[in-house]
């Protein structure tokens, strides 16, 4: 389910505005609007493979809370924790050009590659059965909504796989009411196109917004067109229920790990924030 771009990008800087709490037995970063909440709704933010180790997701959750006016929950829910931050450095080392006769450089590259394998394979193994815990957490969040509140989910990379699966689940096991009221995902990974998206949509037709770069290896522009075509065939006009924005010159992970020095990528990340904000405002407020 992983490609090199899953482990590349920048560590962002900023002051966190939320706080950590324990919710349903899970350590959770809780972001709330600094002003009075304008919505009783809640968004569950499922991170990329870095989990709580990367500040970027928490900073992004703060932006969502401030701009939407709702509560955003970022659970530390990856079994065994997210991949370490030195993965970013390792991937940079692997991708750096090295001359054939640069013995030191070649040894360093081999060391970095072996270290990456020792991180990625255990991560894949320990997260194979992560979804039941994520589902239980989401159902708890649904059960504890304030009166009139709705539940949304935002998933990034690895988290996108989880939130697409959440969108096909009922609020309670065996029930008929949907768990999610709205769904946003940026560069999701590990999903079969278009089957997994259509399977999820057929369950409860949860409105979905997708952000993806045109250089993404996991979800190409053609894949997005297949998903949209499948939605239209199944549901007809999609103006209120489906949108997909393809960002030029952006690869996998841009929405959460964009590098500030790369103007196009950074601007696209900011646009993806507003894409999510507007989607959730439409469907949760």
From TrEMBL:
Domain of life according to the entry: Eukaryota
One protein family per Pfam: DLH
Dienelactone hydrolase domain sequence ranges: 26-283
Signal peptide: none
InterPro entries, per the entry: AB_hydrolase_fold (IPR029058), Dienelactn_hydro (IPR002925)
Protein name: Dienelactone hydrolase domain-containing protein
Species in which this protein is naturally found: Bionectria ochroleuca (Gliocladium roseum)
């Amino acid at each position: 389910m992983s490609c090199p771009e899953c482990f590349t990008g920048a560590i962002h800087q900023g002051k966190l505005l939320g706080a950590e709490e324990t919710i349903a037995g899970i350590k959770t970063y809780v972001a709330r609007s600094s002003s009075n909440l304008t919505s009783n709704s809640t968004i569950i933010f499922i991170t990329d493979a870095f989990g709580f180790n990367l500040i970027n997701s928490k900073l992004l959750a703060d932006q969502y809370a401030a701009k939407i006016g709702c509560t955003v929950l970022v659970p530390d829910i990856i079994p065994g924790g997210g991949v370490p931050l030195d993965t970013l450095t390792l991937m940079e080392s692997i991708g750096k050009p090295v001359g054939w006769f640069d013995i030191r450089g070649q040894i360093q590259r081999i060391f970095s590659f072996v270290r990456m394998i020792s991180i990625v394979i255990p991560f894949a193994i320990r997260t194979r059965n992560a979804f039941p815990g994520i589902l239980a957490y989401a159902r708890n969040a649904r059960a504890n909504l304030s009166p009139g509140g709705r539940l949304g989910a935002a998933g990034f990379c690895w988290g996108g796989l989880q939130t697409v699966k959440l969108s096909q689940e009922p609020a309670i096991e065996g029930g008929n009411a949907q768990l999610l009221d709205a769904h946003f995902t940026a560069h999701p990974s590990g999903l079969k196109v278009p089957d997994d998206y259509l399977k999820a949509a057929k369950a409860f037709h949860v409105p979905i917004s997708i952000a993806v770069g045109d250089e993404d290896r996991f979800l190409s522009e053609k894949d997005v067109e297949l998903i949209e075509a499948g939605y239209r065939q199944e549901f007809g006009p999609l103006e209120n229920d489906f949108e997909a924005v393809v960002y030029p010159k952006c690869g996998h992970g841009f929405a959460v790990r964009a590098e500030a020095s790369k103007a196009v990528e950074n601007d696209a990340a900011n646009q993806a924030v507003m894409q999510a904000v507007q989607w959730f405002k439409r469907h949760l407020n």
